[in-house]
């Protein structure tokens, strides 16, 4: 792997973790939202990642990984819970409102994990940059 490819790999990781942080922010913002039907209730968003596989030096495509890409954002299949609140303007005919399926504790864990992964990719880029600078300094 070329040293320049390190920037591509780390950059794709940073982009993926940025998407993950954005979905966590969206989930946390809608954690306490309610709706008048289970279909209208907010469902937690989850990004779906895949490794980008490229062959290295004429080797098969599974010989090395060249980063990560975001395949899309899916919705959580977890159940929507209902709450009896007959005074709520969003209540259905039976007096129930439907709460989002966001688990704030899980989202905070995801946020910490994504933030650390992002920071690690920044450190990889900084280290690669420093190595390139030291290599250029050898010629002085």
TrEMBL record:
Domain Flagellar basal body rod protein N-terminal, chain residue ranges per copy: 7-32
InterPro entries according to UniProt: Flag_bb_rod_N (IPR001444), Flagellar_basal_body_rod_CS (IPR019776), Flg_bb/hook_C_dom (IPR010930), FlgC (IPR006299)
Pfam families from the UniProt entry: Flg_bb_rod, Flg_bbr_C
Keywords: Bacterial flagellum, Cell projection, Cilium, Flagellum
Subcellular location: Bacterial flagellum basal body
Chief location: other
Residues in Flagellar basal-body/hook protein C-terminal domain copies: 94-138
Domain of life: Bacteria
Presence of keyword Membrane: no
Assembly and binders: The basal body constitutes a major portion of the flagellar organelle and consists of four rings (L,P,S, and M) mounted on a central rod. The rod consists of about 26 subunits of FlgG in the distal portion, and FlgB, FlgC and FlgF are thought to build up the proximal portion of the rod with about 6 subunits each.
PANTHER family: FLAGELLAR BASAL-BODY ROD PROTEIN FLGC, FLAGELLAR PROTEIN
NCBIfam families assigned to the protein according to its UniProt record, in alphabetical order: FlgC
Family named by the database record: Belongs to the flagella basal body rod proteins family.
The protein's name in its UniProt record: Flagellar basal-body rod protein FlgC
Organism: Frateuria flava
């Amino acid at each position: 792997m070329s040293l320049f490819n390190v920037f591509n790999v780390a950059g794709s990781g940073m982009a993926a973790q940025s998407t993950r942080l954005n979905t966590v922010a969206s989930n946390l913002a809608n954690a306490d939202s309610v709706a008048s039907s289970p279909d209208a209730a907010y469902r937690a968003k989850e990004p779906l990642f895949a490794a980008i596989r490229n062959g290295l030096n004429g080797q098969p495509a599974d010989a090395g990984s060249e980063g990560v890409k975001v395949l899309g954002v899916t919705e959580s299949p977890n159940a929507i819970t209902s709450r009896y609140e007959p005074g709520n303007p969003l209540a259905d005919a039976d007096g129930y409102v439907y709460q989002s399926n966001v688990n704030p504790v899980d989202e905070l864990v995801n946020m910490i994990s994504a933030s650390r992964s992002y920071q690690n990719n920044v450190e990889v880029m900084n280290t690669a940059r420093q190595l390139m600078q030291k290599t250029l300094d050898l010629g002085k």
